[in-house]
Design a protein that fits this description.
The chain is of the alpha/beta class. It is 40% helix and 17% strand. The chain has eleven helices and ten strands. The strands form two sheets. Strands 3-2-1-4-5 form a five-stranded mixed β-sheet, with helices on both faces. The structure holds 5'-O-[(R)-(carboxyoxy)(hydroxy)phosphoryl]adenosine (KG4) and zinc ion (ZN). 5'-O-[(R)-(carboxyoxy)(hydroxy)phosphoryl]adenosine binds next to α4 and α5. 5'-O-[(R)-(carboxyoxy)(hydroxy)phosphoryl]adenosine is lined by residues 10, 140-142, 167, 170-171, 182-185, 188, 283-285, 287-288, 311-312.
Length: 345
Amino acid sequence: MTVLALETSCDDTCAAVLDREGRALSNVISSQLAHEAFGGVVPEIASRHHLEQVNAIVEEAMRLAGITLADVELVAATRGPGLIGALLVGLSTAKGLAAARELPFAAVDHLQGHVAANFLRGSEPGDVPFEPPFLCLIASGGHTLLARVEERDGFEVLGRTLDDAAGEAFDKGARMLGLGFPGGPALQRLAAEGDPAAFSFPGSPGELRRGAPRKAFADGLDFSFAGLKTALLYATRELSPEQLSERGPDLAASYQAAIVQSLASRVERALERTGLARLAVGGGVAANGPLRERLRGLDVEVHVPDRLLCTDNAAMIASAARFSEQLPYPEYLGLDAYATGEGPG
Ligand code: KG4
Ligand code: ZN
């Protein structure tokens, strides 16, 4: 069936159309740049931008796909988790579009969307959907999740972050080092000139080399980046501005290595525990070079969807919708959004 999907859970206004075979006919993403000056996403600004842009983005997605609303057979939108005001814009718009033609509706969990990005065909010739079973690592600015995917309509959470998301750790670290937002790419560039073992951060090669005691949660599958962030803060405080700029590359390299180690060690452990031999990686942090290198070095088949499908987009929501419950009109009109990862509750 032809699916029109919307995604507005954070700061990207997204709409996409999938054809009956599940190919993306369009995947429009409008990123909001207004947040850069604040060093992070401002929820109220995000909602307003979504409201201003959403209709034009939906029109554009249908125009690029060469269809009109009359061709749409299923409408979908992200229901949560995310920023509640932002989610409500996409969810309400999508419900309105579906109701106008009494179409069925699928309310999609954002993380299920990231998982379902793997079921899409990429743009490279020969790209084929990555089918379950697989282990899935999703690491972005908003979430860090390790999931066991056995079916196309769900996943089992094996680990998640106890505090910051991995991308957030990159962004906050980059800010401490005087780099812009989002900080991941800039931190990676600075780190390329540094020594990853120069500083002894929790989980970094420097700490492991010095034989420091392992942290209490280190044998589990959950993630935590708060201690690492504090360690970087203390390290920067001890340096003068001149020393800081001189040691910047070493700090960035050690900090990045600790994040990569935290992600990769849990992936390795989860592969071992589940016996899965295939790994999918998604979220903006999947673009990180050293992380990709480390994961590609594992003795498993690794799938990383196209960059546009890895970061927030609506094609992944449409993909999840194909395998989700589809509510007939008018059962979905009362659906509400949910902000946290706990689900509709
Ligand atoms: O999935 P995504 O585009 O969006 C949201 O989470 O909303 O992820 C963005 C995150 C940011 O935290 C950014 O710093 C991080 O992904 N990121 C990276 C890299 N590229 C993007 N982190 C590390 N290395 C990168 N090359
Ligand atoms: Zn996301």
